[in-house]
Amino acid sequence: MKSAVVVLPGLNRDRDMIAALTKISGKVPVTVWQTDTEIPDVDLVVIPGGFSYGDYLRCGAIAARMPVMRAVAEKAEKGVQVIGVCNGFQILVEAGMLPGALMRNDHLKFVCREVKLRVENANTSFTRNYAPGQIIRAPVAHHDGNYFADPETLARIEGEGRVLFRYAENTNPNGSINDIAGIVNDRGNVLGLMPHPENLIEAAHGGSDGRPLFESALGIAAPQPEPA
Amino acid sequence: MTISNTAKITDELIAAHGLKPDEYQRILDLVGREPTFTELGIFSAMWNEHCSYKSSKKWLRTLPTSGPQVIQGPGENAGVVDIGDGDCVVFKMESHNHPSYIEPYQGAATGVGGILRDVFTMGARPIAAMNALRFGAPDHPKTRHLVSGVVAGIGGYGNAFGVPTVGGEVNFDPRYNGNCLVNAFAAGLAKTDAIFLSEAKGVGLPVVYLGAKTGRDGVGGATMASAEFDDKIDEKRPTVQVGDPFTEKCLLEACLELMASGAVIAIQDMGAAGLTCSAVEMGAKGDLGIQLELDKVPVREDRMSAYEMMLSESQERMLMVLRPEKEEEAEAIFRKWGLDFAIVGHTTDDLRFRIIHQGEEVANLPIKDLGDQAPEYDRPWVEPTPRQPLASDDIPQADIADALLKMLGGPDLSSRRWVWEQYDTLIQGNSLQIPGGDAGVVRVEGHATKALAFSSDVTPRYCEADPYEGGKQAVAECWRNLTATGAMPLAATDNLNFGNPERPEIMGQLVKAVQGIGDACRALGFPIVSGNVSLYNETNGQGILPTPTIGGVGLIQDWSKMARIGFAREGEMILLFGAPDWWGMHLGQSAYMRDIHGRADGPPPPVDLTHEKKVGDYVRKLIRSGIATAVHDLSDGGLAVGLAEMAMASSIGATVSQLAQGDPIPQFFGEDQGRYLVTINLSAQSDEFEAMLAELKQLGIFAPWIGTTGGSELKLGHTRAIPVTELTAAHESWFPSFMDK
Questions:
Q1: How many domains does chain A have?
Q2: In this model, does residue B64 exceed pLDDT 50?
Q3: How confident is the model at residue B515 (pLDDT cuts 50, 70, 90)?
Q4: Looking at the domain assignment, is residue B540 inside a domain?
Q5: A86 — phi, psi (to 5°)?
Q6: Distance CA A204, CA A221 (A)
Q7: How far apart are CA B479 and CA B519, in angstroms?
Q8: pLDDT tens for residues A113-134?
């Protein structure tokens, strides 16, 4: 399975994402630049985190209007999987590829800490290597991760099982409505999430709870637990 | 407003530029005529304390700056230290004190931006940042505003730029009421064969301006940073620059791409005194003249005068000398990142610094005298008065459990989580230890086992009571914190913050602190490779506590054997390495005396550097052998606070005995130096343990077995057991309740 990472000026977790995808898939992902209008033939496109264009306007608003995002949308329409992490999630929302909005954290401060997530729906291409209801660890690092949607939209995404990750055990770090941490589009092939699974994939990170997400998306079977 | 180049040079104008009459006379002698207004500004920028180190140079020269590991010592944008395998670490610490007091968010943000630029100017990708912050008393009306702005500014810049903040310090003291300190540290990773320096080489080569456009922000900033404050400080706000981390991130990527292309001959970032300082440094270091044509400088405001352009401190700008044949390739890289690229001058062979603006030569000065031959002072200084030792029976009493909880829940020893959770500590995916331990640790990308440890330290109250011992202690504590992770300390950077050096007693603090730093660095093999001096930290005649911050870097060969402060498991022996006979004895200047009894008398604990090195080297060996399971250095608050921190980090309790004889207060709260708490995975009956004791005896290291880990409470001697959850509640609550009230 091949992957691509979108690189925009101001994104800064692109190198983290490239390192994680390389370690997990054994292949270095291709990178696509802001002005690229076509994305090579890949199975997964990832928009990493950061502060695209400084986020001086609404987070992700400028990025969402760059040529490369039209190419990302075309891929998504063809059924290719897309993941947006943190700023990537904000960009997908601004691009209209995911519903709702990401507002400033309720405490108005940047927050970097580890939270707990519950895997709400393990029956998707992004979560199949997790168990339903599994509680996983995940770091967050953002200033604008307070997810909001109007009641109608909220009822729809909740009803359709499109909330894949929810902050658990009272660790909601930003005031997100319904503790929402990650959602998919109606077709189920575009995922946006605020936490950073790419920063929790190996022993050096102190855990690997983020790894099954990428393994799911890349079609890598969950590794069997080693015999004790 | 446009300031003309033809303004008349009056005594008031000279004084307003911070130039003393004898300095002005020196200018007249050098130039052989009355300087133009632009020239006066250039001299003011180059000869102020901030850029010239004129009061401290004599003493800085006494510091040890070399060693087999040192590739580049002080004098460049940052120091460079070899870490093997063709890699090196590039680092420096720099103050942004004055701007941060005037405008905390932007002052702190641009402090971070400036230090990151220093590091990547040398060809290194920044991999870690730290910040040493000192604020006034918590109840001072400005303190919360400053804490909130400074922390948000550091986070706002560092998080967007994309560097993990892995360590730092936050302290409060009324002596910082009128001058907060913001000392920013950054470290980067580079290849030893691809280090870039500021020394220009070759005549007639293009001088290229890169990065953001020039505006009027920060005009005169370096001069402001070299003056004392008074009540009219708010009028200085326009001298503070505004940071743009997005442009800096683009500048980083563009510079690293450009360096890899082989186009760069010399590079210098525009920091204090902007275009002036960067151009002069490149020329003076390379024994070349520089001619600049200001009409080619990218500007973002209309009708800027030569004076303003030369003194602007607009951020995110670089000056380079490029290979002419690579010009086109270089420009394409900068355009790709949306940055300005302009050839604004060329190198010459006549050692003159010439500025052309609108067809007119507005400055023509001898470049060497501006740069490396700036004035230097041997300012008068007096020996600090030594403090009388406390009487041996002067041991004010308190309940140990109550005192410990009060100290952990107070302004200085409480958890700094409120601060560091606003910093991205995890970005880049290499953070192995984030704030909250003895040192921040980041693994070396591209290497299977290596990691770098970072720590920033100084105990200002010790420095106030005895600047020499305080200087030694700052170095020793930094070295100790690095050692406590298992790292071999490599080298350090110093950020010397003091009051007005024209006062002999302040100058005496500086001299003695530098002597203490030098002696400690020599004894520990821990050279100073970069640094910064910030003087005139005074308001209305009241100086700050002398604060020589030390930022150290250490190398861990195998991070899988690194030590952390949290107890590893229950039932392990706790040993106190480097203890004196009574475990702890020195109460003078201790956190206990200050926080519990409101006393600040007595001398600070002395540092025995031979003992320090011997104990540290042994503890490091124990970590590398895998015997030590948790390690914590003892500092503020002594044994009781050290044990509590190890318990809180792991949620595992401990039972620690009390000596049968003597008073338990100094035992638990004394701040004797050179001590580590170490838990080991050996049993008391094992042969390995016996062998260790024999070895320790031979080396003359006292390491009493003081207790055992386990349970959910911390039990110190005969005092009541405290649940670890109660310690944590006290420790975690002070900062949020102070800031969010």
A1: 1
A2: yes
A3: very high
A4: no
A5: 60, -110
A6: 22
A7: 13
A8: 999 999 999 999 999 999 999 9
Determine the residue type at A64. A
Spell out the residues 6+ positions from residue B109 whose beta carbon is closer than 8 angstroms to its own: B153, B154, B156, B157, B243, B245
Contacts of B428 in chain A (CB under 8 A): 15-16
Q: Decide if A227 is inside a domain.
A: no
Q: How many Å apart are CA B5 and CA B587, to the nearest integer?
A: 60
Structure tokens at B638: 């002594």
Q: Which helix (H) or strand (E) holds B83?
A: strand B79-84
Answer yes or no: is B46 within a domain: yes
Residues 6+ apart with CB under 8 A from A89: A98, A102, A182, A192, A193, A194
Which listed residue (A94, A120, A198, A215) is catalytic?
Answer: A198
Enclosing domain of residue A47: 3-217
Q: Is B479 on the interface with A (CB under 8 A)?
A: no
Distance (Å, whole) CA B307 – CA B214: 12
**Residue B299: inside a domain, yes or no?**
yes
Quote the CA–CA distance of B444 and B555 in Å, as a whole number. 10
Helices B104-121 + B245-260 axis angle, to 10: 0
Asked whether the predicted pLDDT for residue B226 surpasses 60, the reply is no
- Between these two residues, B9 and B479, which has the higher pLDDT value? B479
With residue B451 as reference, give the H or E element that holds it: strand B451-457
Report residue B1 as tokens. Answer: 């407003």
Please report residues of A whose CB lies closer than 8 A to that of B425. 112
CATH code, domain with B572: 3.90.650.10
Q: Do B426 and A112 touch (CB under 8 A)?
A: yes
Q: What is the Cα–Cα distance from A116 to A172, expressed in whole angstroms?
A: 8
8 Å CB contact between B122 and B78: yes
d(CA A183, CA A160): 11
Over its C-alpha atoms, chain B yields an Rg (Å, rounded) of 26
Look up the CATH number of the domain holding residue A22.
Answer: 3.40.50.880
Q: Which of A22, A86, A109, A171 to mutate to test the interface with B (most CBs of B within 10 A)?
A: A109
Asked whether residue A117 is domain-assigned, the answer is yes
> What is the tally of structural domains in chain B?
2
B346 is catalytic: no
pLDDT for res A228: 47
> pTM for this structure?
0.96
Interface predicted TM-score of the whole assembly (ipTM), two decimals: 0.96
Q: Would B421 be classed as within a structural domain?
A: no
Compute the Cα dihedral for B680, B686, B688, B693 and give only its sign: positive
The domain of B217 spans 16-370
String of DSSP letters for B608-647: -HHHHHHHHHHHHHHHHTT-EEEEEE--TTHHHHHHHHHH
Q: What are phi and psi of B433, to 5 degrees?
A: -140, 125
Q: Does A209 touch chain B (CB under 8 A)?
A: no
Percent of chain B whose pLDDT exceeds 90: 86
pLDDT (tens, 9 = 90+) of chain A, 228 residues, equals: 899 999 999 999 999 999 999 999 999 999 999 999 999 999 999 999 999 999 999 999 999 999 999 999 999 999 999 999 999 999 999 999 999 999 999 999 999 999 999 999 999 999 999 999 999 999 999 999 999 999 999 999 999 999 999 999 999 999 999 999 999 999 999 999 999 999 999 999 999 999 999 999 999 987 665 554
Question: A196 an active-site residue?
Answer: yes
B232: exposed, middle or buried (Cβ count in 10 Å: 0-12, 13-18, 19+) = exposed
B 539-578 near A (Cβ less than 8 A): 559
- Alpha-carbon distance of B411 to B731, in angstroms, equals 10
- Is the distance from CB of A86 to CB of A196 less than 8 angstroms? yes
